[in-house]
Write a sequence for this structure.
């Protein structure tokens, strides 16, 4: 098995500007390595460069500088492209086709052998078997999204690039899609997800990259990004004195037995713990305070106070 499913080194993309105007830097010196079998989520604000990066992975956009490798090869390689399943953000589906006819066409283009079986199987997986003979034109947004996913799944791709896969899909449908993606991963596929739905990204992906202004500002395992080195949650045995713990320097939470400790280093944390225990409180649990992905993103995009301009 390949070590890396996606590799970018020093990747830059500058969109050319109008006559004499400088171009727009959509990707700036982007370095990224995604291991085979990972579930990677790329997040970031509008205009961060996510779609530009996906276009570079698909070989439909030529980088200005730098290297991009997909499944160990150039994205221009036709055999490599055939191993990628892609769900675009904006789906263009033929309204007059039935989903079955559409999927059979995609299966044929992908060079699959048992076209009819593959199309029916994919349709069943995404929960559209009962709609096989309806026209796509009458499909809801969520049904269209499911059909797009079915098309991406055809041919057992090694890499699935999914742009907003659960957009418009109802809550039960999202659970079904997560199950399908888990099955794909278990089969050995790598997932690359671009989504503004952070709770979905959090549930599906184990590695996250945050793109802002064309730069990768954070990248790593979800636990590492959401954990904090400086904030800990402390649980004390019932019966501790909340006022004394507050006076010792701890911050109360809605749970009367749980307090937060904000400390810059382990030494200060232990000094604080000594003070808390001196009040008679018994510590029963200590763990880093985990932030959700929305908070991780907000923190990554908020400049440190020292760099903020005064109004
Ligand atoms: N064809 C183009 N010509 C000029 N500028 C472009 C072009 N495509 C994208 N851009 C610019 O490049 C930047 C990155 O765009 P991109 O579409 O990659 O962002 P994104 O992260 O996918 O945004 P969104 O979350 O809104 O979809 C934006 O400032 C955008 O205006």
């Amino acid at each position: 098995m390949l070590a890396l499913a996606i590799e970018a080194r020093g990747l830059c993309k500058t969109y050319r500007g109008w006559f004499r105007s400088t171009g727009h830097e959509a990707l700036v010196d982007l370095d990224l390595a995604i291991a085979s079998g990972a579930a990677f989520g790329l997040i970031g604000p509008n205009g961060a460069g996510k779609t530009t990066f996906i276009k570079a992975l698909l070989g439909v956009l030529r980088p200005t500088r730098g290297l991009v490798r997909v499944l160990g090869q150039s994205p221009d390689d036709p055999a490599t492209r055939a191993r990628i399943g892609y769900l675009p953000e904006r789906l263009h589906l033929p309204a007059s086709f039935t989903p079955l006819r559409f999927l059979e066409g995609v299966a044929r283009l992908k060079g699959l052998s048992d076209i009819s079986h593959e199309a029916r199987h994919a349709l069943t997986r995404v929960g559209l078997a009962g709609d096989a003979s309806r026209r796509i034109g009458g499909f809801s947004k969520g049904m269209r999204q499911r059909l797009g996913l079915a098309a991406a799944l055809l041919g057992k791709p090694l890499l699935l690039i999914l742009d907003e896969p659960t957009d418009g899909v109802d809550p039960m449908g999202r659970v079904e899609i997560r199950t399908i993606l888990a099955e794909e991963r278990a089969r050995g596929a790598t997932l690359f997800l671009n989504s503004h739905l952070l709770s979905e990204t959090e549930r599906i992906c184990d590695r996250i990259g945050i793109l802002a202004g064309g730069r990768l500002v954070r990248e790593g395992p979800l636990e590492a990004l959401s954990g904090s080195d400086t904030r800990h949650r402390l649980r004390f045995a019932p019966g501790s004195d909340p006022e004394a713990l507050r006076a010792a320097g701890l911050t109360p939470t809605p749970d009367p037995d749980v307090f937060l400790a904000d400390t810059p280093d382990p030494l200060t944390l232990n000094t604080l713990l000594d003070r808390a225990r001196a009040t008679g409180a018994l510590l029963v649990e200590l763990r880093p305070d985990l932030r959700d992905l929305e908070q991780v993103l907000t923190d990554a995009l908020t400049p440190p106070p020292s760099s903020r301009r005064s109004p």
Residues 171-186 form the longest helix (16 residues). Residues 229-288 form a domain with the Alpha-Beta Plaits fold (CATH 3.30.70.870).
